[in-house]
Amino acid sequence: MFETLKSRPADSILALVQMYKEDPRQTKIDLGVGVYKDATGLTPIMRAIKSAEHQLWEEQDTKVYTGLAGDPAFADAMIKLVLGEAVARETVAAVATPGGTGAVRQAFELIQMARPEARVFVSNPTWPNHVSILNYLGIEVVPYRYFDNETRGVDFDGMIEDIGQAKAGDVVLLHGCCHNPTGANLNLTDWQSVVDVLLETGAVPMIDIAYQGFGDGLEEDARATRLVASSVPECLIAASCSKNFGIYRERTGLLMAVSQDADARKLNQDTLAFLNRQNYSFPPDHGARLVTMILNDDALRADWMAELEEVRSSMLELRSQLASELQRLSGSDRFGFLAQHRGMFSRLGATSEKVEEMRSKHGIYMVSDSRMNIAGLNAETVPILAKAIIDSGI
Ligand code: PMP
């Protein structure tokens, strides 16, 4: 039977990882895959995670199943981290999921069950897996203008016009902070305008927040999500712990469905538990438990926050070094956007031919849409990248 399967193109980012591995040049630079790396190129296990794992190993006396929604303590701790005091706890239905991807997938399935004809509006560009999962589920995708290739900032007027086309019962997918793949973000005033459009159209927002703490700080990065959640009658929020806790392979995420209507909230909770049961039954617990331990223990939490802050400021430092080196070499401010962008990524705004040239000539690997992982740089490679960008005429 399996001969009927269609072969699928390899994931372009994973293919890039392979090409990088096979490149014999000592001077090669990997700005491809989206994981945080320190100055030595390592993706470290955070100190608080190590401590929590140690403690868990000592104290955990069973590995019996959790509930279908995961451990309620994990949901409580994450809802507080993401939403703060923006909404009352009892308005939030939540399930633990395998990573942020699991949360995104369950959110799309919930939308489809609630309203099979719903369209999902996504930024152009967005994280490719959003579009891929929507296509897979047969949900209609409507791109909205987002990245302005001239300014390398947000095409805000275009965005507002396009999401204004959404109808009640459609969904508008928004990145809570640190937009992937562009690095270009809205400010809080812009977010208020987005809220106004959502209220006018009756479209339901879905927020994907995968990088809380990587942009302007833990609280700052949650502000937009909190503003939206506290302003609209219903919203979905998919949160990932992969980046900010550095537990990529533990597959830790939470899907939240906020509803001001108590009956709808109960239906959401029951349906999300049902969806977990159908797809994988009980969600993974190890990463979720570590996160819960860290968030609920003052010392572990303080240590985690301090290390996350080091991660965040190291990326900001690399951004400003790169922007000023490019200013020096180009004699212009046209790369200033690199210091304005936030999170792990920046879209350089180069053609795929230039990206290819950077790879073949200089051994610099970035995604073909010119997304660079800023965390792939260090103090030595910043000037090398800047020179290659200028030499390539970008
Ligand atoms: N959303 C966005 C925007 C992302 O960039 C990512 C990670 N690449 C995810 C969700 C999902 O992350 P994970 O499944 O690894 O937690």
UniProtKB/TrEMBL annotation:
Name the record gives this protein: Aspartate/tyrosine/aromatic aminotransferase
**The protein's assembly and partners:** Homodimer.
Similarity remark: Belongs to the class-I pyridoxal-phosphate-dependent aminotransferase family.
Q: Which UniProt keywords apply?
A: Aminotransferase, Pyridoxal phosphate, Transferase
Q: What species is this protein from?
A: Roseobacter insulae
**Which InterPro entries does its entry note?**
Aminotransferase_I/II_large (IPR004839), Asp_trans (IPR000796)
GO molecular function per UniProt: identical protein binding; L-aspartate:2-oxoglutarate aminotransferase activity; L-tyrosine-2-oxoglutarate transaminase activity; pyridoxal phosphate binding
Q: Which PANTHER family match?
A: ASPARTATE AMINOTRANSFERASE, ASPARTATE AMINOTRANSFERASE, MITOCHONDRIAL
Task: Fetch the NCBIfam families from UniProt.
Answer: PRK09257.1 (NF006719)
Q: Which GO terms describe its biological process?
A: L-phenylalanine biosynthetic process from chorismate via phenylpyruvate
Q: Where is the Aminotransferase class I/classII large domain?
A: 27-389
GO CC term, one of those recorded: cytosol
* Cofactor(s) listed: pyridoxal 5'-phosphate
